[in-house]
Structure formats: structure tokens, C-alpha cells
Specification:
By secondary structure, the protein is an all-alpha fold. The protein has 19 helices and no strands. It has helices spanning 2-21, 29-34, 41-52, 55-69, 74-103, 108-116, 119-152, 156-204, 208-216, 237-249, 255-262, 267-292, 311-316, 321-359, 365-393, 398-422, 428-447, 459-480, 486-493. The chain is globular.
């Protein structure tokens, strides 16, 4: 217990210290929200990765999908790495940075307003972001609480409040720069921790090959395939593909992820960021799902009727005190980094895109900063209350909470954001259609599942469906509806044609 408490105290002290160190970068709106667009490649890459992966992945998704798909769940982690990280950087990174700087936009709703010349679009996007980030934050606390309960035997409420207060302190003090630096530190912890945990858990099962052989003997009355849980694509390949789409392609439309590209400071950041964030995802996401794939070997200790969220904590409960301390800090790092990204995104969006546009249009920069900091406190408080309500009433599992949030946000934003960066003919009506369909589809799925086919009653599958359909809706509606002012659109896209000079080591004549 002394080791666990000591490591936690050191971790907390470093996080808060970084927050106060970064205060000088958070003296104006752009500094607080984007770090002055001067964040280096390694910080940007780690900020992207740590915002991507949280306790939702490590405890919720790894446990649930490892149980369902066995070792094949590792494909989800690899999809996160190559589709959700590498391809996202290649396709979105440079274009997002160039166009958002040209439009002088600091948030995703602000981008929608200036790119599609519509203030109502900005307000609608800010409302969607605020509403659907809430269930995601509640899921972060839930995953963390189970590991804290295992390691320290402390009340869930205390765990939630401590994590919320500490995250709030460093976000309020240092804004985006504090979040980016802490993300880098937390990312290092996650990398070391996941490797140690996977090795330790496999060792308890006699090593990798022995664990794999044992997994081949596992049977399930609902699965006819022999050795399904150690097979290449698992017992349900189609469902597995849906999870890969939701958790990988979804990042392309999540405001807290896309906003990382706004803060890129140079070309090197794009190249380094793409490589580093991909390797980070391979290790952290791949390792988490790989670990979860062996969950059925512990079925004698797990009552699955109590939910999937207990699987990973049960797998880890027999490890040494030192390793459990590392695991707790690993998941704490993952959760705090994601929570900080969510509250910063939500507070900046609500301030700049809603309050400043509708309630107090003449708000000074000083008042904007104060409002964002107050909203960080408010957003964290709301998420804590919802997390406690969810815990006491046992509303749903972690994966379902995340599926609703990701499905609605990415279903609404992915297609119009992507086409808005690349296609001049994207229309304003198409953007509205995507907003209404993505958010409305997931709301309906949440309150009236019985209206959907069996496959789409899962919010995870519904979220993946909403994203894919959005990619079809936007171009079709754009071709059938009035176009934006051609001269203004050409002017916006001219930002990509501005010549730049580079050394010959970068490009030939």
C-alpha cells in the first residue's frame, strides 16, 4: 500500500506542477485553447494518442470485445493504429492545420461557420458537442473506479472526485499546453505500463503459447466454431469489423481529436506525429485488446452476468503490488488525459461558439478566458454527478456509453468536416442533413432500440452505421442542393495553393 500511495502522490504532484508551469502559455484565448499553435511534434502525437485511449478502452472495450472475439480483438487495436491514427494524420493533418489557420478558427463549430458561411451551424455543432461529450466523460470515471476499488478498496465517489479535481486544476491553470505536456508524461506511463501488464498476465497462464493453447480449448454454447477464440478473425467477423470502424474511423469526426491538428506548428510535426501516434496506438490499443482477448481464461473467477467491465480488473487482481500500482497509474493517466481533452473542448466550444455568439457578443478576451475556466469546472462537476448516478443505478456498460457519444459526434461531424476540407461543392444543406441524421439516429437508438433491426440495436454498430451513411449522405445531398458562393469557396481553398519555400533536403527543385 505504501508503494501504491507514494507513486500516486508523485504522479499527482507532477500533473499539478505542469499545470502551473504552463500558465504563461494560457494568457489569451488562442494560448488557452490551442497552445498558440506552437505545440511540437512529440507533444502533439502523444496528445492525440492519450486523448484517443482511456479507461473506456483498457477496461470497457478490451474486456467486452476480448470476451466476444477472443484474440481476434487485437484487430481493433491495429485498426485504431492504422485507420484511426496514421490515416487520420495523413488525410486530415495538413489540410486541417492550413484551412483552420486561414479561417482563424479555434474550434470545430467555428470551422463549420466560416467554411459554410452559417452562424446557426456553429451554434448547432456546439450544442451537439456539449450534449454528447457528457456520456463519454461518465464512462471514464466508471472504468477507473473498478481498478481503484481493486487496488485501494476505497469508495467510488472519492475516486471520482479526486480524479476530477486534479484534472480540473491543471486544465484551468495551463490550458492546452498543460494538457499536451501532461499527455506526453501520461503517454510514457501508458507505454511502459501496458507492456509490463501484458507480460505479467500471460506469465500467470504459463506464457504466450500456453495461454494461446488454453484459449483454443475454450467453448461457448452460443458459438459453433471450434477454437473460435484463438482464431484469426474470431467467432463474429462482421461484428468485429463494425467495432473497428466505430473506434477507428470515429476519431476523424471527434472534436477533441481533430482539434489536435489545429495546434500543429510545422511540417515536421505532421510527419513525426503520424509515425509516433501510430506506434503509440499499436502498443497501447493493440496491447489492451490483445490482453482482453485472453479474458475467457479467467472465466472461473468472473460472473459475466454482472457485466463486462469486471473482466480486466479480475485478470489483474492476482499481480504484485508494484504492478498493480503501475496499472492504476496507467489507467489514471489514460483517463485524465482524455478527460482533460474533453473538458477543454467542451468549455472552449461553449464559450467561443455559443455564449459569445448568442448571449454576450461583446465579450472581452479576459472574460472569454474566465468563462472557459468556469465552464471547465461546470463540465467536470456535471460529469461527476452523471458518473455517480450511472454507477448507483447501473444504467449501462462502459462500451455502450462510449458508443453513443462517438456514434453521435462522428456520425454528425465526420462527413461534413472531411468533405469540407477537400470538396468545394459541399453544400450547407448537406452539413445540416449530416448533423440531424447523426445526432438524431443515435438519440433514437438510445431511447427506442426496439425500432431498429437486431444488428443496429447495439449503439456500437449503430454508431458505425451512422458514420458510414454520413459519408454517402453529404455528397448526394450536396449535388441536389444549392451551392455556396463560388468566389468565397475558391478564396478559402486558395490557402492550399500558397507557395512555400523549403530546403532541398525536403524537396527537389
Amino acid at each position: 500500500m505504501v508503494i501504491k500511495v507514494l507513486l500516486l502522490l508523485i504522479f499527482f504532484a507532477v500533473m499539478i506542477g505542469v499545470g502551473f508551469y504552463s500558465r504563461r502559455h494560457a494568457t489569451d484565448v488562442h494560448g488557452f485553447v490551442l497552445g498558440g499553435r506552437s505545440v511540437g511534434p512529440w507533444l502533439t502525437a502523444f496528445a492525440y494518442g492519450t486523448s484517443y485511449f482511456s479507461a473506456v478502452i483498457f477496461v470497457g472495450y478490451a474486456g467486452q470485445f476480448g470476451w466476444k472475439f477472443g484474440i481476434a480483438s487485437t484487430w481493433i487495436g491495429l485498426g485504431n493504429a492504422f485507420l484511426g491514427s496514421l490515416l487520420a494524420w495523413v488525410v486530415l493533418g495538413r489540410r486541417t492545420r492550413v484551412m483552420t489557420q486561414y479561417l482563424n478558427s479555434a474550434t470545430m463549430p467555428d470551422f463549420f461557420e466560416k467554411r459554410f458561411q452559417s452562424k446557426p451551424l456553429k451554434i448547432a455543432a456546439s450544442v451537439i458537442i456539449f450534449v454528447f461529450l457528457v456520456p463519454y466523460t461518465a464512462s471514464l470515471y466508471n472504468g477507473l473506479s473498478r481498478l481503484f476499488g481493486m487496488a485501494f478498496h476505497i469508495d467510488y465517489s472519492i475516486c471520482v472526485i479526486v480524479m476530477a479535481v486534479l484534472t480540473g486544476i491543471y486544465v484551468i491553470a495551463g490550458g492546452y499546453m498543460a494538457t499536451a505536456i501532461n499527455d506526453f508524461i501520461q503517454g510514457l506511463v501508458m507505454l511502459v505500463g501496458i507492456v509490463a501488464v501484458v507480460a505479467a498476465v500471460l506469465n500467470t497462464q504459463g506464457g504466450f503459447m500456453e495461454a494461446l493453447n488454453s484459449l483454443a480449448k475454450v467453448t461457448d454454447p452460443n458459438v459453433e466454431q471450434v477454437g473460435a477464440f484463438n482464431s484469426f478473425f474470431g467467432p463474429a467477423p462482421f461484428e468485429l469489423f463494425g467495432v473497428v470502424i466505430l473506434t477507428s474511423l470515429g476519431t476523424w469526426g471527434l472534436p477533441q481529436m481533430v482539434q489536435k491538428f489545429y495546434a500543429i506548428n510545422n511540417e515536421k510535426s505532421i510527419k513525426t506525429g503520424a509515425i509516433v501516434s501510430t506506434l503509440f496506438a499499436v502498443i497501447v490499443a493493440g496491447g489492451s485488446y490483445f490482453l482482453g482477448g485472453f479474458g475467457r481464461l479467467f472465466s472461473g473467477q468472473i460472473d459475466i452476468s454482472q457485466g463486462y467491465d469486471q473482466i480486466i480488473p479480475t485478470m489483474l487482481s492476482g499481480l504484485s503490488d508494484l504492478l498493480i500500482a503501475v496499472i492504476v497509474i496507467l489507467v489514471l493517466s489514460a483517463s485524465m488525459s482524455t478527460l482533460s481533452a474533453l473538458v477543454l473542448t467542451s468549455s472552449s466550444t461553449l464559450t467561443l461558439d455559443f455564449i459569445k455568439e448568442t448571449v454576450k457578443k461583446d465579450m472581452s478576451e479576459r472574460k472569454q478566458l474566465l468563462t472557459m475556466r468556469l465552464l471547465v469546472v461546470f463540465f467536470i462537476a456535471v460529469s461527476v454527478v452523471l458518473a455517480l448516478i450511472q454507477y448507483k443505478s447501473n444504467v449501462t456498460f462502459i462500451a455502450q456509453l462510449m458508443g453513443i457519444s462517438w456514434g453521435a459526434l462522428a456520425g454528425a461531424f465526420l462527413a461534413p468536416f472531411l468533405y469540407g476540407l477537400y470538396w468545394k461543392k459541399t453544400s450547407r444543406v448537406a452539413v445540416w442533413t449530416s448533423f440531424v441524421f447523426g445526432a438524431g439516429f443515435m438519440l433514437l437508438n438510445m431511447v427506442a432500440k426496439e425500432l431498429f433491426p437486431a444488428f443496429l440495436q447495439s449503439p456500437i454498430n449503430a454508431g458505425a452505421f451512422a458514420m458510414v451513411i454520413g459519408l454517402v449522405i453529404v455528397p448526394v445531398v450536396s449535388l441536389l442542393t444549392p451551392k455556396l458562393d463560388r468566389q468565397r469557396v475558391d478564396e478559402i481553398f486558395s490557402c492550399y495553393d500558397e507557395p512555400v519555400t523549403v530546403d532541398k533536403r525536403e524537396a527537389l527543385d
